[in-house]
């Protein structure tokens, strides 16, 4: 079975923008067991299952393929492209909720360490790499390729992809023509450190991109998001203490399988109430007798290059949008009228 034969036509249309000539050699890697498992994980970290959000199901595999296509489009390099395809191969069910489970809600990097192990243990992937004369250590860490990944607030294939797909599919803030405008204005540039980085050719388009990514960044850590991710993490922690699920299971099971376990547990009622909730509540003071969340989350922001200069240095609008994003207040207590079972 070829995964791409069963993907939503809207996603295929998006892929075609990223790379009109799809690299057929990539299909064999996509259709390995380890990669296909990612189709059952949503990029929204479980928030897709609650009425607090109205989300489209864009999978971790869709994201990984799109990142690979962007890298291939700009580099035509197999090794860099595969590093992008594999960068989320170690993603567990509910994605970054596991970082919240690990107490890593500020960096959200705790799940990245298993990438090499998963690739090594895959006979399919290792045979393909051997056939293509590629060493595992050339594809197991996309951080070494600046087009694939770099430090915030720089623009990389990963950051560009999740910004465009979240704006297009998940939160419906932009349409396909907007995505084309963004993408067709991207080129490889040299930044202030004389390192290569993805950047914009046109100031006005870079400003539009910063406007939308600043809005997205707030959505990624707003009250309803922090609450939902921590609630899922705490339910998983409770199930783990009761030996009904292990952290290792989250790297093997589909999200739908984990939900079935939750629905057969004492957490069924709180999970169902969260799924049907319409709006999170907030308070400046600690609420009593309810489950609440009171902490920050990772700040994602992008200040891209535009014709060799950071956009905030040449655009007042971009600078203001970035500052508004960075100053978003996460001090509220967030809650619903729910209690975690003892």
What does this structure look like?
By secondary structure, the protein is an alpha+beta fold. It has 16 helices and seven strands. The strands form two sheets. The chain has a four-stranded mixed β-sheet. Strands 3-7-4 form a three-stranded antiparallel β-sheet, covered by helices on one side. Strand 1 and strand 2 (196-200) form a beta hairpin. The termini are far apart. The relative contact order is 0.13.
Largest sheet: 4 strands, mixed
Total strands: the figure is: 7
First-last Cα distance: 45 Å
Give the strand line-up of the largest sheet. 1-2-5-6
Structural class: alpha+beta
Shape: globular
> What percent of residues adopt helix (DSSP H or I)?
40-55%
Please, how many helices?
16
Overall pLDDT confidence: 93
The topology string of helices and strands comes to HHHHHHHHHHEEHHHHEEEEHHE
Cα Rg = 20 Å
Strand content: 5-15%
Q: Which blocks of ≥5 consecutive residues have pLDDT under 50?
A: none
Oligomer: single chain
Observed structural traits:
four-stranded mixed sheet, three-stranded antiparallel sheet, 46% helix, 6% strand
Overview in brief:
This protein has 342 residues and is an alpha+beta fold. It has helices at residues 9-18, 26-30, 33-36, 60-75, 78-86, 97-101, 115-120, 123-131, 157-170, 176-184, 203-221, 223-241, 255-263, 268-276, 311-314, 316-326, and strands at 186-190, 196-200, 281-283, 292-293, 305-306, 309-310, 333-335. The strands form two sheets. It has a four-stranded mixed sheet with strand order 1-2-5-6.
Topology of this protein?
Blueprint: H1 9-18, H2 26-30, H3 33-36, H4 60-75, H5 78-86, H6 97-101, H7 115-120, H8 123-131, H9 157-170, H10 176-184, E1 186-190, E2 196-200, H11 203-221, H12 223-241, H13 255-263, H14 268-276, E3 281-283, E4 292-293, E5 305-306, E6 309-310, H15 311-314, H16 316-326, E7 333-335
Parallel strand pairs: 2-5
Antiparallel strand pairs: 1-2, 3-7, 4-7, 5-6
Helix pairs in contact: 4-5, 4-9, 11-16
């Amino acid at each position: 079975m070829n995964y791409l034969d069963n993907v939503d036509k809207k996603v295929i249309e998006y892929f075609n923008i990223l790379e009109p000539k799809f690299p057929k050699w990539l299909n064999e890697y996509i259709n390995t067991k380890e990669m296909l498992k990612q189709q059952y994980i949503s990029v929204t970290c479980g928030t897709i299952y609650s009425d607090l959000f109205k989300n489209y199901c864009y999978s971790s595999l869709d994201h990984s393929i799109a990142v690979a296509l962007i890298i291939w489009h700009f580099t035509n390099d197999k090794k860099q492209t595969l590093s992008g395809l594999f960068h989320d191969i170690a993603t567990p069910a509910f994605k970054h909720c596991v970082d919240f489970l690990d107490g890593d809600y500020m960096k959200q990097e705790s799940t990245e360490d298993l990438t090499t192990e998963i690739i090594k243990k895959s006979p399919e992937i290792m045979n393909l790499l051997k056939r293509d004369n590629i060493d595992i250590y050339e594809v197991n860490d996309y951080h070494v390729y600046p087009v694939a990944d770099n430090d915030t607030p720089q623009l990389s294939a990963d950051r560009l992809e999740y910004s465009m797909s979240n704006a297009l599919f998940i939160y419906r803030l932009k349409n396909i023509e907007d995505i084309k405008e963004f993408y067709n204005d991207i080129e490889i540039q040299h930044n202030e450190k004389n390192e290569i980085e993805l950047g914009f050719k046109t100031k006005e388009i870079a400003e539009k991109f910063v406007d939308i990514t600043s809005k997205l960044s707030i959505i990624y850590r707003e009250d309803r998001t922090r609450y939902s991710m921590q609630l899922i993490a705490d339910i998983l922690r409770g199930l783990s203490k009761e030996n009904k699920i292990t952290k290792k299971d989250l790297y093997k099971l589909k999200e739908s399988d984990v939900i079935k376990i939750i629905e057969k547990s004492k957490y069924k009622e709180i999970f169902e109430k969260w799924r049907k909730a319409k709006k999170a509540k907030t308070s400046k003071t600690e609420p009593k007798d309810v489950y609440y969340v009171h902490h920050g989350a990772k700040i994602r922001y992008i200040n891209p290059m535009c014709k060799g200069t950071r956009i905030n240095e040449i655009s007042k609008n971009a600078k203001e949008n970035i500052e508004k994003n960075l100053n978003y207040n996460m001090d509220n207590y967030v809650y619903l009228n729910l209690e975690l079972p003892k």
